[in-house]
Design brief:
Chain lengths: 287, 135
C-alpha cells in the first residue's frame, strides 16, 4: 500500500467516517435501541483510527503484529458486544462491509483520474477488510455459542426438580433432551432424594422429552436400574404415542420397566403398590 | 482374620457389611453365607450394604453370585440400603443385578422377605441357637 494513499485516507478520515455512519444508520435505523448513535460513532471512529494506524505501520515495513492486534481487539470487543445484545449476523456484516464501501468511495473520489492505481489500491484495501470481516464473524459466532452454552448449563441446573407427590412417592418431570451429563444430574438428585425421603416409588415423567432415541432410552434404563438397586421402584410415565412407536421401531426392549401413558395412571399404580386408596367422599357420609 | 458376622433371625439370615469389602473377605462371606443357608435351611438372606461406599465389578459379581446360589438353595436374597453412588457405579459397570431383590432399608427388606415367604413355611432349624457361624 503506497504511503500517499494512506495519507490521502488520513486526510479524508472525517468524510469516510461520515459516509460509514450514514450507511450504518441507513441499514439498521430500526435497531437504534440496541446501541446509541454516539456509541456506534465512537466505535466506528476507534476502529477507523486503528485501521489507518495499521496500514501505516505495514506500509513502513514495520512488524504489524502489535497494531494488527489492536484492530482485532477493537473489532472483537465490538462484535462481542453486538452478539450479546442480540444483533443479527446481517447487521454485524453491514457494520464491516459499509466500512469498506466508505473507504473505497473516498479512494475513488480522490484518484478517479488514475484507474490503474485506483484498482490496485482498492483491491488491497478490500482484501484487508475481508480478512477483518472473516475474523469478526468467527468472534460473533463464538460469542453466540458461549451464550448458548451458558444457557444450556442453566437449563440443566434448574430443570431437574424432584417432587414428593405423596408419602413414599417421588415424581421427576424431565423437560428437554436427555444427554449423558443431564442423566447423571437427574440420576444423582433422584437417588439422593430417595434416600432422604425413604420413598419406595419414583415416577419418571418423560412427557417433556421431545424425542427418544436409543441413547436416551439407554439413559432411562440406567436410571431405572439404579433406582431399583437402591430398593425403590421406578415407573416411566408420559410416554407419547410417537415415542412408543420410535421405541418399538428402534428395537429397544423396555419390557423390564413399568411404563404408563400419563402421570395420573402412574400415580394410580403407585397408590395400589403402596396399598393406598383414593376415595370420593360422598355428602351422606360427611353429614 | 477379619470376618463378617452372619446373624440368624428366624427363617432369615442377616448380614450387615460394616467394613470395606476386599476380595478375600467377600469370597469368604460368599462361602460362609451359602454354608449357613444350607445348614440352617434359611428361606431368606438380607444383606445390608448401607455402610459400603466403594464397590467394584468383583463386589457386584459376588452379590449376584450370592443371590443365584441362595436361589438354588431355595432362599431369597434382598440387598438393602445401597448408597446412590454405589447404585450408579454398578449400573455404569453394566451390573444391574437383575436376580437380586432390593429394599431401601433393613426394615423394608424384612417386610419384603416376609411377604415373599409364606408364614407357615417358616423353615430354619429352630433348635440352633448360635447367632454367628462357628468356625
Amino acid at each position: 500500500m503506497a504511503l500517499d494513499t494512506i495519507a490521502l485516507l488520513q486526510k479524508k478520515k472525517q468524510t469516510i467516517l461520515e459516509t460509514w455512519i450514514k450507511h450504518q444508520l441507513a441499514n439498521d435505523a430500526l435497531r437504534d435501541e440496541l446501541i446509541s448513535n454516539e456509541d456506534g460513532r465512537a466505535q466506528s471512529e476507534e476502529l477507523l483510527n486503528a485501521f489507518l494506524d495499521k496500514l501505516r505501520t505495514e506500509a513502513r515495513g514495520g512488524s504489524a503484529a502489535d497494531d494488527s492486534d489492536h484492530v482485532q481487539d477493537i473489532l472483537e470487543t465490538v462484535t462481542i458486544s453486538r452478539a450479546r445484545k442480540g444483533y443479527s449476523p446481517r447487521e454485524t456484516g453491514v457494520f464491516i462491509f459499509s466500512f469498506k464501501e466508505a473507504i473505497l468511495k473516498a479512494l475513488s473520489d480522490e484518484i478517479k483520474n488514475e484507474p490503474v492505481i485506483l484498482f490496485e489500491e482498492s483491491q488491497k484495501i478490500s482484501n484487508k477488510i475481508d480478512v477483518l470481516a472473516i475474523e469478526s464473524f468467527e468472534t460473533f459466532i463464538k460469542s453466540r455459542e458461549e451464550v448458548i452454552l451458558r444457557q444450556t448449563d442453566e437449563i440443566a441446573e434448574i430443570s431437574t426438580p424432584v417432587i414428593r407427590v405423596w408419602e413414599g412417592i417421588l415424581a421427576l418431570p424431565i423437560i428437554g433432551t436427555l444427554d449423558s451429563s443431564r442423566t447423571q444430574v437427574v440420576m444423582e438428585s433422584l437417588l439422593s432424594q430417595i434416600v432422604e425421603t425413604g420413598s419406595e416409588i419414583a415416577i419418571l415423567d418423560i412427557s417433556g422429552v421431545p424425542a427418544v432415541d436409543s441413547l436416551v432410552a439407554q439413559h432411562l434404563m440406567k436410571t431405572v436400574s439404579a433406582t431399583r438397586l437402591m430398593g425403590a421402584e421406578c415407573i416411566i410415565s408420559g410416554v407419547r404415542p410417537e415415542i412408543a412407536q420410535t421405541i418399538v421401531h428402534l428395537g429397544i426392549d423396555l419390557s423390564g420397566i413399568i411404563t404408563k401413558s400419563s402421570l395420573a395412571s402412574a400415580l394410580k399404580y403407585a397408590f395400589s403398590a403402596l396399598r393406598l386408596e383414593v376415595k370420593k367422599i360422598s355428602k351422606d357420609v360427611k353429614a | 482374620m477379619e470376618k463378617i458376622p452372619i446373624l440368624k433371625m428366624g427363617p432369615f439370615l442377616l448380614v450387615t457389611i460394616q467394613v470395606d469389602l476386599y476380595d478375600r473377605l467377600a469370597l469368604n462371606l460368599e462361602s460362609d453365607l451359602i454354608r449357613m443357608v444350607n445348614k440352617m435351611g434359611s428361606r431368606g438372606v438380607l444383606i445390608d450394604i448401607s455402610a459400603v461406599n466403594i464397590v467394584d465389578s468383583f463386589m457386584g459379581r459376588i452379590l449376584g453370585n450370592i443371590a443365584s446360589m441362595s436361589k438354588i438353595l431355595d432362599a431369597q436374597t434382598v440387598v438393602v440400603g445401597m448408597q446412590p453412588a454405589v447404585a450408579i457405579t454398578l449400573v455404569e459397570l453394566g451390573l444391574p443385578l437383575n436376580g437380586v431383590r432390593t429394599a431401601l432399608n433393613v426394615e423394608k427388606g424384612m417386610q419384603l422377605l416376609q411377604s415373599m415367604i409364606p408364614p407357615d413355611d417358616g423353615g430354619g432349624d429352630e433348635n440352633t441357637e448360635d447367632d454367628t457361624i462357628a468356625d
